[in-house]
């Protein structure tokens, strides 16, 4: 449908967070316009799609764990509804389980600590010996000393998820996608009232959502007190092919710490193997570097030596939106009418359903769900 | 110009060897048709373009050394004439010198032996201490123990050379390029008399040249006694970018033996850095693999650790035409009217001028130059 003269909600940024927020918000009956010159092109496209709140648990992030677990639990219904709304697109959700492995006594101790912490929080994880881990995944390196199996940590093919969201929005009469860059926020009477696009077109809106990942603080016209403190954190990531003769190569997501680098291998149902990822503070640089590719291959080889024979399909770098406390910004900013849904750092794919649901609730009712409350953008207020 | 009904010479294969042979032969006054569905697309495009007969000297290959040195000496005139014939295209020839380095006492001994052998043959090479090597190339690893500087071993940008050859052929009235695959050799009266293209078109010709690299033995209709014994030898190769801030990164080609792998880095004038290459017997497979890329980056990093920061521009695999004795096949085969110019293995770019000149001489006069005589395809006769 043509853009309404003044949509209820204008979303800036068409990554997974923006697209899913647009879809869920339109489902609540609001009219939504999303603008992005190249939707689905950045971190959402590059990501590995791990849904691993239990395996990626960190001390001191219990609040984030609550949101992560909530979002993981929402995934089955979210993708089922999305499949229907999109006219049958497969969102690529796969309940494949995750195996975190240890190489030496130090790794083993770290993993045992993590296991203890997981159990103290009532999370399910199973300790495996090296032999048990290799029986589960025969391609694991002989040097693997033990592992932690988390059957409940799954994955989604983020590229299939993007495609399903595009299809759902296409069929949603209250949503419109504008392939253009928002250049400036329009503020009137102390309130966000729309944006001006790069070509000069003005779009007025009831509420404006910043969902532009690490670029969310770059829009002109945002008053300083409402600027989301996000920064780019570069990640380089590889995709390998698993030829028929090697299938099934891996059936679980495999994670490990190699020389203090976190490495992972995520096997897709259709045979791709995703290898990630570097974590680099390099401003907005997105070059794939010799060193980045070297380290990813070196660490993945240490976990699964058999990758040597696999064709290298793709090398890529993209920018995660980092925040000062590594947790997302969800909800109203200090400027009335301006909301944020950004700063998801390493958990953007995982947090897509919970964020979209929380944002739709806030946009439709003005009230912030309890689970989202700790992630108010106002926590960074001056 | 339109193809003559019956060109004097028909060349199968549009790599550097085929293109240069076509150009030099047309210059001798013969009409030439070259057919290739995708000229300049395989090993000639992938190659690093090292012109390093002295650095790549091997025991037992003194005959090949003679041809290699002859071809290296021809390069300056060859590219000057090509530049003129092409209407000004720069063939990318660079007299940048080559530095072979050693890491440990074993490498050092190997390099010292090579130096001795070079001197015994009257070749010019200068021994450098580790410190001297690093003064010449400050990006070299601190662990480099010594090096052999060969000022006379140069390089050519094989992609610029291809472009110049295309331009020269375009302007050559006696030459024609047909973008189609030769399917079958036509033999009549015990003599090669032309080919049939994949679409059924027949081209009759006075003489036929097999210059299809590792595919030279695949053409249907070649009698067994005339089949060139070439095989594909896969090479994976990388291209990095050198950003302005790092220039000049390297000024010489740097070669080294790392864990018995031969690694090299070739710096282009325009800032590209070529890293090569694997040597794999993998039949006709041309996939870029995780292991290939890993090893190239690992070995190049050992020589020049600073590559870590450089953007990775390209990963590629192509097939060298290997022969039973690692030397090329140049000249008449056992079938009258059928000649070969293939099997150049690792030296195709280097041997382009000498091969093209020898082939033009043979095609125009029927007599084989002395230097090419040892490389007769008939040496593999049954």
From TrEMBL, chains A, B:
Keywords: Oxidoreductase, Thiamine biosynthesis. The keyword Oxidoreductase applies. Pfam families: DAO. Residues 8-361 form the FAD dependent oxidoreductase domain. Pathway: Cofactor biosynthesis; thiamine diphosphate biosynthesis. It catalyses: glycine + O2 + H2O = glyoxylate + H2O2 + NH4(+). The keyword Oxidoreductase applies. InterPro entries: FAD-dep_OxRdtase (IPR006076), FAD/NAD-bd_sf (IPR036188), Gly_oxidase_ThiO (IPR012727). Its EC number is 1.4.3.19. It is an enzyme of class 1 (oxidoreductase). SUPFAM superfamilies: FAD-linked reductases, C-terminal domain, FAD/NAD(P)-binding domain. NCBIfam families: thiamin_ThiO (TIGR02352). This is glycine oxidase. The gene is thiO.
């Amino acid at each position: 449908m043509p853009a309404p003269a003044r949509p209820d909600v204008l979303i800036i940024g068409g990554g997974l967070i923006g697209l899913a927020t647009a879809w869920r918000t339109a489902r609540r009956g609001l009219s939504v316009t999303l603008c992005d010159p190249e939707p689905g092109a950045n971190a959402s496209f590059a990501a590995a799609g791990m849904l691993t709140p239990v395996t990626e648990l960190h001390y001191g992030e219990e609040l984030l764990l609550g949101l992560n677990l909530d979002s993981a639990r929402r995934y089955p219904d979210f993708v089922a509804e999305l499949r229907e709304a999109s006219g049958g697109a497969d969102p690529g959700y796969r309940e494949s389980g995750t195996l975190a492995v240890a190489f030496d006594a130090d790794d083993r101790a770290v993993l045992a600590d993590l296991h203890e912490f997981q159990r103290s929080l009532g999370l399910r994880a199973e300790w495996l010996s090296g032999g048990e881990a290799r029986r589960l995944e025969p391609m694991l390196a002989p040097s693997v000393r033990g592992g932690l199996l988390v059957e409940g940590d799954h994955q989604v093919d983020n590229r299939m998820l993007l495609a399903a969201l595009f299809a759902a929005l296409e069929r949603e009469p209250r949503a419109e996608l504008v392939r253009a860059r928002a250049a400036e926020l329009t503020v009137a009477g102390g309130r966000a009232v729309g944006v001006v696009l790069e070509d000069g077109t003005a779009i007025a809106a009831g509420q404006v959502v910043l969902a532009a990942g690490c670029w969310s603080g770059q829009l002109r016209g945002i008053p300083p007190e409402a600027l989301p403190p996000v920064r780019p954190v570069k990640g380089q990531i590889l995709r390998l092919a698993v030829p028929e003769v090697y299938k099934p190569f891996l059936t679980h997501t495999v994670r490990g710490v190699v020389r203090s680098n976190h490495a992972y291998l995520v096997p897709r149902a259709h045979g791709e193997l995703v290898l990630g990822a570097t974590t680099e503070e390099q401003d907005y640089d997105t070059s794939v570097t010799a060193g980045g590719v070297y380290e990813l291959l070196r660490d993945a080889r240490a976990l699964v030596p058999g990758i040597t024979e696999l064709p290298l399909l793709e090398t890529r770098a993209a920018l995660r939106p980092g925040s000062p406390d590594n947790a997302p910004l969800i909800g109203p900013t200090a400027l009335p009418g301006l909301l944020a849904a950004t700063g998801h750092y390493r958990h953007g794919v995982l947090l897509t359903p919970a964020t979209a649901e929380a944002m739709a609730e806030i946009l439709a009712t003005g009230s912030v769900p309890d689970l989202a409350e700790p992630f108010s953008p106002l926590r960074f207020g001056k």
